[in-house]
Amino acid sequence: MNDPCILIVDDEPLARMRLKSMLKHLNFEQIIEAKHGAQGVELASSQMPDLIFMDIEMPELDGIKAAAEIKLQHPSMPIIFSTAHDEFALQAFDLSAADYILKPLSLDRLKQAIEKVGLNFINDKIQVKRGNDVIRLAVSDIICLMAEDKYVIAHLHQQTFLLDQSLAEFENEFSGFLRIHRNALINTAHLKGIHHCPGQAPQALLNNLTLQPNISRRQLPLVKKLLKEL
After folding, report:
1. Per residue in 46-81, pLDDT tens?
2. Closest CA to 176 of 151, 143, 205, 209
3. Residue 165 and residue 170: Cα distance in Å, rounded?
4. What is the spatial order of strands in the sheet that 184-187 belongs to?
């Protein structure tokens, strides 16, 4: 499933906007929206989404009734209920709901629900800042990240961007990066060598970057081992 389609059914525009933003953060791009249950039933049949996020308390047709209609027509279509109320959980699971998550949604809980459904998502992009702009950036383009004061700076070839995440958060979310110092993460695909200078800490030589971040004494053996394996 290369480009799954997700349907959001919610009568609250801000709730749809927030969920859509979180899904885009997880690199789901094909997202359609319904403003109420009846429209959700129509879109479920016409668009055949791979996953539906369904609110419950909505005008015209509530989420429980809408889900029942959808399941009658498309029994295998996964539905995740997303609501601010927990009292409908039994009814939801009677309809073979894939999951039942409470608002306000957290990204970790959203990931857990999507993984339960079995959709594939690859975190290969991240939001970064440059001036007044917020840009989506391919993680593979990042050569290294440096923590400086209260900020984390992503270094690319001839470009730098600010991140909202800490180094630890980035390290936990994305693979392919190695912590070489308490203030530095490097993309292992860009590691090309180690620079030694008497009386100074060794530094990482990175492709397409003049910056040479320090390597801690503790991490130096790991960096040397990685170089042998490249």
Report:
1. 999 999 999 999 988 999 999 999 999 999 999 999
2. 143
3. 6
4. 133-138, 125-130, 159-163, 151-156, 144-148, 184-187, 177-181
